[in-house]
Amino acid sequence: MVHDGAPLAVRLSLGDRPRSNEIFALARLALADAGVAPADLAAVAVTIGPGSFTGLRVGYGLAAGFADALGLPLLGVPTLTAMAVGSGVTAATFAGTLVPLLTARKGELYAALFTVAPYAGSEGRPPLASLPSSSPTPRRPLETAHCHRLTPDFAPTPDELAARLVGPVLFVGDGFDPAGPLAAKGKPLEGFGATGERSALMGVALLAADALADGREGEYPPDLVYVRRSQAQINWDRLHPQPSQAGGIA
Predict the structure, then answer these.
(1) Closest CA to 115 of 155, 75, 167, 158
(2) pLDDT at site 230
(3) What's the DSSP call for residue 115?
(4) 69 vs 66, 74, 126, 161, 214, CA distance in Å?
(5) What predicted TM-score, i.e. pTM, was given to this entire model?
(6) Is residue 40 packed enough to be buried (19+ CB in 10 Å), middle (13-18) or exposed (0-12)?
(7) pLDDT digit string (tens) for 200-217?
(8) What is the pairing mode between strands 148-149 and 187-188?
(9) What are the structural domain ranges in the chain?
(10) Structurally, what CATH architecture does the domain formed by 90-191 represent?
(11) pLDDT band at residue 141 under the 50/70/90 scheme
């Protein structure tokens, strides 16, 4: 929970797979910690993926129900973007490539590449930049303050990702294997924002609050992002082949 760009309360589950009733209990505790009532909230935000198919749908359903019950807008923030921003890494502390990582199973990762070097674009409003509210310079979106996205979300193997990385690299999230090929390319972030859950938790709240402050809620539609097809979809297609245009079986 954040207000004016500053965290008010943070509550994390200690379990690997928190139950829905536990999530609502954590929400109540966060409200109590912040000293606010549900009626004081301006919006509800949720990460939209990539990630576990079941986890995304469950989390989305809970957030949507919470927002609907309170009559609040629901904002969807891409998970890897939230992790990059929520990590707290900025150009003041690191110049290089920031890579949020999540385990995707099947020997793959969910990843995206960001740069945290100062943005050198020619446009007056870079795609990821925010300024303190006291600055006389026009305010820029927080999503561009810490990092500039270099790639869309994708699902590489560790070897495929390692082959794309050059220069200083910092990994954020639980997809980093210190014994794998990525260990030779960079180092993992340490501290509160090092885990995927913690960095995403901070990032989704900060980005949503920043968008609300600027009236940019439409930039974060609550549409789930899967990146790749689920195993259930693959199995269904295998069992139900579709006729090709030529009249055969695809």
Answers:
(1) 167
(2) 62
(3) E
(4) 5, 11, 36, 42, 24
(5) 0.83
(6) exposed
(7) 988 999 899 989 988 999
(8) unpaired
(9) 90-191
(10) 2-Layer Sandwich (3.30)
(11) low
